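anyone seen this seq b4? input:
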Amino acid sequence: MPGLFTLESSTHEELFDIFESMDEAHDKARICISRLPLRSLLRFISMDDTNVFWLTEQESKTSIAPSLDDILALIEEQSVGRRCLILLEGLDWLLAKNGQQHLMKFLQHISRVVLEGSHTMLLSVDALTFDPVLWARIRALAPAMERERTVSHHSKTEVVEPSSESYDPPHITHLTKLSRVGFHNALLTKRMLQWRRMGFDVSELEPALAMQDMDRAHAIYHAVEEKIQRAIDLCRLLETKSGVLGVTMTETSQFRLMQLTGLEEVERILDGIQD
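predicted toks r here
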């Protein structure tokens, strides 16, 4: 839905999971203005299909200063002739650098730009950093983005309790394997995002993102790829035997598979069930 919205998220993982999932539902070009430098952003989003800018006072080819006029000009330039999904971080910093009056004028102007161009723009915010009166004014211009409950799969300590007596298997599928020929960081980032959308914990791949040696990076990728291929096969087998295992055991086993831990133990349990 076009418009200007606020979005509260507890972590960058959650924020960019939401941004990526919205991209799947919106046929729009993507613009991301983030407080994270580009190297850090590689962990969360694909640079291939997103115009990314680092909100900073440091000068670089892909940086944007915390100037409201500069940000407005950038958004207007980047969105000409196309509908866009735009994410802006650092609203509290922009307030500190520009003042309340200028920030509200900026939001009023950007709201008109967004609506006239049928764009969707998200302001990543923490409500507690704003004065209650100012926060009410911001929310009047940018209401909270309505979204389905998002569960992050990046934390290995997450505990998921079964909510019903039925088992709802995840939507997962085998992807084409990536060979060493033509393998690079952007391709790795896109594959990580694909697996994360399925629900897999791919934190083991994060060191490979910072490597210049693509042979070593691909070796790490290949090891994780083998785990995920095996986990998908076990997930499908688990689905066929969920009636025997029961909901609690099935969901516990499913969680372990999505975390890529305990694959041998889950396989042993499934092999022990008589057809």
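Residues 214-240 form the longest helix (27 residues). The first strand starts at residue 3 and ends at 7. kinda curious what u guys think
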